[in-house]
Each structure stands twice: as C-alpha cells, then as structure tokens.
Amino acid sequence: MPGNNPATTKDNNDSPTNILESPSIETVAKLIKENKAKKLIIMAGAGISTSAGIPDFRSPGTGLYDNLQKYDLPYPEAIFDVGYFQEKPEPFFELAKELYPGKFFPTLTHYFIKLLHQREILLRCFTQNIDTLERLAGLSDDILVEAHGSFATSKCLNCRKTADPKWMREAVLDGTIPRCQHCHNNGIVKPCITFFGESLPKTFFQRIPDFKECDLLIVLGTSLQVQPFASLIDSVPETTPRLLINREAVGVYGISGYGFDFEGKYQNYRRDAFFAGACDEGVRLLAKLCGWESELDQLYAEGHKQLTEKYKVVPSALLVPENLVAAEPTKSVEEVDSLAALLEQATISSTKDENQDDKQADIEIKLNQVTRDEIVNSENSVSTSVKEEQDAIVVQVQGVTSEQSSTNDKVNVTISTNSSNNITTNNTTTTTSSVASSKDAAL
After folding, report:
1. Does 228 sit behind a cis peptide bond, omega within 30 degrees of 0 on the bond before it?
2. Which residues form the active site (predicted)?
C-alpha cells in the first residue's frame, strides 16, 4: 500500500516536487500532446453514463436509491443483495427490464475512452458501471475491466452454466423470472453483476498490476466511496500524474500517501489535477486541447448511427454538440420547461420543401413516454408548423439547448427528461457506482 507516513500534513520545509506545472486539465493535455503519457488508465464511475439518460445512485432526488420506494424493499441496497435476490428476485428483474442494455447509447465520454484506445495510448479501462456502454462504444474485453460485472453475461445460481444472451434478454424484457434450462427450471439465472455478498470478478484482481505501469491516471465521474475500487487511485507510482474529472472533488483524505492532493499539502509530489464539471464537458475540453475534437465528434456520430441501425431505436438521451447550441431560444423559458416536462423521448423531424411557395417547415413531435406525475402513462402527438422567417428550431431540455437550422435534410433529435418520480427513465444499472453503498462490500 502506498505511503506509510501517518502524518496528515507534510513538514513545512518539505516542498512537494512538481510533476505537473499546475493542477489543471490544460497541463495534463500538454503531457499527452508531448507523448509523455502513453499508458493511460481510466477509472470510470456512474457520472460517465448520466448524459445517456442513466442516473447515478446517490444524487438526492434523482439517484437510484431515492427512487426505490415503489419496490417496498426493506432497505434500498436490498435490490442488489444476493440473499434478498434469491428469496425475492421480482424487484430486481422488474428494475432490470427497464435498465437492460439496448435502450441507452454511449456518451461522448465513452467514445473519448474509445478514442484513447484507437490512438493506442489506453492501457486499461476500469469501470464500476454495469450498463455495458463501454462495450457498445467499442472497447474490447482485453482493454475493459468491469469491476462490478455487467449485463453482458448471465449464469444460473445453481449449476453456474452461462445462459444464452438472446434468451436471457427476451426473458427479462418479457417480464418473466429467467429459470435455468439446464436445472429443470429450478435455478434462477442472474446477470453477472456483482451483488453485495459476492466476490468481484477475477479479472479485476488480475489487472491491478497494470497500475504500476500507468503513466497517466484519469478518473471520471465517480464518488470514490466503494472499496476496493476507490483505493485504486493510490496504486499508481507516486510520480504518476492523476486527473479527476467530476462535478465535485472526491478522494481527498488529507493524509500523506493516500488520495488526491490538489493543493500540494500532503503528498511528496504535486501531480494531481481537477476539472470541476460534467464528464462530457471535461473530455470534450481535453480532446480539444489535444487537437482531437473533430475526431471525437466523428467517432460519436458514427457510433450512434451504427447503434441506431442495429437496435432500430434512437438513444434515450442526446448530447448536443457545441456547434448546435443556440444563443437565443425562440420560445420562452416557461414554454421550454413545459415542453421538456412532457417529453421523455421525442423525435423531431424537420423538412423544408423549396418548391412550396410558402416554404413552411413541418415539425412532427412524437411523444414516446411522459415523465411527469400529472400525465404519467399518457401518450400524445403534437403537430405544429413555423413560418419561413424562422431559421432555427430550438429545444432546450434541462439546460441542454439544441439548434437545427432549417435545411433540406431530415434531422432526428432525441431528447430525454429525467423525472425523479419515474424510475424507468432515471435508473439504469449501468451507473458507475453500480451498486455503490456505504457498505464496503464487494460492490
């Protein structure tokens, strides 16, 4: 374990040696551009999947644990407790039906990780997420370490035989409890997600030595509250630079040899940088600083196109590229909020016919699912038109604004609204903290 010094602060005469010129994302980008970082390790949490429409576990009001009352559980974490699951599997499979892979697409952050792999500088990606979005983005088994397992495989709890993925998917989406076909329908088939009371995957422990080779550690969207995953940040050499991209600073313990030290107070080397913000925002900036922004956007667009064709669905949430962000909305904030509240998934198709004298644009909005209490389970279809003087269609959902100038092309935009009252949209087992709880359990 790193650091044996019990002191909480360094000696005042002991100035830390600078590994990074400054604790900023710009300095980290400079290392990458100068080819000084060739063996990157990514540690990913639930925060990289929230823009896909998948909530994290702990956010007040919108996190998974805050939205489990409908399952009448003895305690929130019980839904991922292997003992409770064996006695009462129904709550988990009811939740799994809504969270099963295929409904959500990888985010910009997932494709940034893929980009690092394509550039042959990614040594390994350790993820707490069980949503398989890293796989959908194109990461292979030899690069990916799913610390808490995933929905990718399923096994019978009795005979331990692996179930056919297609059969398992159909059973879960059909709302039935999957029973092993090799155990005369006795054994429950469970996705290979690490529940409380279960051991972490062998691959997790086999890949830990990779941290000794790491020359740049990037930690994305995690609370660093779940062990042993959280302690991995201290497994890299003490001279290895570390970058945290997260909405808030985490993993700061104020102890020499342990955790992040963004101010240079506790560690021997000043090597930690922090970007405060959403993961997609942070990786976009990092890609821009490295000169990869257009490459990242292309990878994201092509990936979503392929997944849309494969699954015959549109993503549950849309990350709007910066060049589509409008400066001035054509609707009031109240009108936009009202529209956003009505939509869980919306497809906006805009067409403009130059042969028409009036040159009107038809906007078709298909309401797939409603997320607010007053209109739950209702469906509606709204059709409206705008005059030719309107050059743009602007839709803003929860601070994300997308602008599509009127063209002859057909444009599809998917928007999702997360409601704290609807576990369907807000919960996906895919989150980084995949069953993160205050317990220092296997998960």
Report:
1. yes
2. 148
Distance, CA of 404 to CA of 326 (rounded, Å):
9
Q: Are 269 and 239 in contact (CB under 8 A)?
A: yes
User: pLDDT band at residue 56, thresholds of 50, 70 and 90?
Assistant: low
Beta pairing, strands 189-193 & 216-220: unpaired
Q: Which long-range contacts (CB under 8 A, 24 or more apart) does 5-9 make?
A: 5/256, 5/257, 6/255, 6/256, 7/256, 8/254, 8/255, 8/256, 8/266, 9/254, 9/256, 9/265, 9/266
Q: Are strands 272-276 and 242-246 parallel, antiparallel or unpaired?
A: parallel
Residue 364's pLDDT is 34
Binding site listing for Zn(2+): 156, 159, 180, 183
User: What CATH number does the domain located at 1-148+194-317 have?
Assistant: 3.40.50.1220
Active-site residue, selected from the candidate residues 148, 182, 184, 304? 148
Per-residue pLDDT of 14-46, as tens digits, reads: 678 999 999 999 999 999 999 999 999 999 999
Q: Where are the domains of the chain?
A: 1-148+194-317, 318-371+379-387+402-415
Q: Are 44 and 221 in contact (CB under 8 A)?
A: yes
pLDDT value for 4: 39
* Catalytic status, residue 117: no
Instruction: Quickly state the pLDDT bin for 407 (edges 50, 70, 90).
Output: very low
pLDDT (average), residues 118-145: 95
Residues facing residue 244 across a β-bridge = 219, 274
Length of the chain: 443
- Which residues neighbour 134 within 8 Å (Cβ) at sequence distance 6 or greater? 44, 106, 110, 113, 125, 127, 144, 146
CA angle, corner 378, sides to 376 and 381, nearest 5? 135
Binding site residues, as ranges? 156, 159, 180, 183
In this prediction, residue 208 carries a pLDDT of: 97
